[in-house]
Amino acid sequence: MQKILSSSVQPSARDWVYQYLILNNIANHSDDPWIDTSLSKIPPKIYQLDWIPTLLSAENALHTWYSGDKRVALIAMEAAVAEIEKQEFWFLLPRLLNWAGNMALSENDILHAQKYLLKAEYLSKLRSDEFSLSLSNYNLYKMYYKLGQWEEALNHIQAARRLKEELPSINNDILQIYWYNEAVTYNHLHQYDKAKLAYLKASEYFQNGKKSDRYYVLDLRTQIAISLMEDDYERSNALVQKCISTATLFDLPYSLGRCYHKQAKLELTNKRYQQALSAVDASLKSYEKFDSASAILSAMKLKARIYESQGNFESAYDLAKQIYATEKEQLLLKVRDLTHAQETFDLARQVDELSLEVILNSNKLDRTNQYLDYAKWLGFLSIVMIFMMYARTYMIKRENARLVVRSSVDQLTGLHNRHYYYQQLVKGEAISLDQHYHLALLDIDHFKGINDSYGHLVGDEVLKQLAERILPWLLPQELFVRWGGEEFLLLIKADSQSIERLERVLKTLAIMPFNTSAGGLIVTSSIGVSGKVTPAQLLADESHFLEADERLYSAKLQGRNRVVTD
To answer: Are 202 and 221 contacting, i.e. CB atoms less than 8 angstroms apart?
Structure first.
């Protein structure tokens, strides 16, 4: 930076902007006097640009993120995104959405991550911004990889890589990462020939790149993967030791964790179980230093496999319970913030029932073991235990797959949820992307009073019956989703009959009593309606949603049980 600043070349307006942003970032890490001196030379017209303060806020959020205060950083980044949307600085939005999506993804907040990343992908396509589009696809790859959806992950990493290859200037380091991740995904799909070719491409880009410490370790991991695929265990072991010593030398905790992870897999393959356990423990220690929740879980699962292969079923079972409890805790933390408490209760109950079943089965096995202590059936018992472990693994995998499918459906009412709504704004499978719609927010009047007076079970009955009554009023290519709590969202076609149709819906709801376990209840609702808008406009601009929300609030103030439009 100092070399650039001392150059006699007159900077362009864009150069000045980059200098200003970079100098501000450096100021977060250093208080050297030359930084302030250089900042004072920036022309005032540059830092007076109306979008610069918001971009600086986003850059500072990134600084906070890498400093370790991740939750505060994500909130700050979301505020910057909202401000950019409010001011309509669309050229900046894909970059900030990618940052926000990547932050949410790192916190295992999959629903928020998907919302940001799909929006970033859409806006990047709209602006033909291939750089941001490649980044969106790479982040979406990471999201689908976390979910274990390998085909989707492969599609996105390939899209990210192709876009990078088409850019005017080739970034060898980034392409090394993309090819490496493509190879890893092929491995999960058991397409080993394609995986090997992709690993070789990653190594080729390393040879053409800057060959920095981080990318050198990544290339070592590539060579380890190839040697393991060729069953060359002696070479694999030598490369693993080199990987560990290099990552240690350059203080790269995540890479060090991955090197130990590969060593643990190698030792497991060779049935050296004690060495495998030592390696996986070293891997866990490195991941904890890097604070990577998903990597820690991956290492814990590998450790459980090692215990199982060793025949130490008790330790494997205890660790499996710990892994399951951790995944359950992470899931509930995210779901609690995004959906109604009833959904959280349903998921928690199912998981707890499954956990209870495991505990009961464990107790039964303990009693059986006592009866068979002096029996000669130990071989048969071991086979049964192995079978039960595999059966439980299959059941848990099937349950996880079911939870992924259910992520777009509200479990109480059977309606789709907000996650599905954002998907449709992008994909247009259930709606027309060319159609103009009204976004209508419906809220049940005095719903808290129903819960307080009759209990939450009666409140749930009202929610389910309301969903059943409104669905028949929908036309093809319209949406009706549960937004959260007692609030619902409708996307109805903007025609001459749409508002009248909403008024008839409210009238029908108010006239016919809801049949509940507490008897017939008269229930009314209020609706706020936005102006005419396309799905693309809804995706790009949250103000249309806020417009409907404000009108819903106005309907409440005006006495409830009414539709408020413009």
So the answer is: no
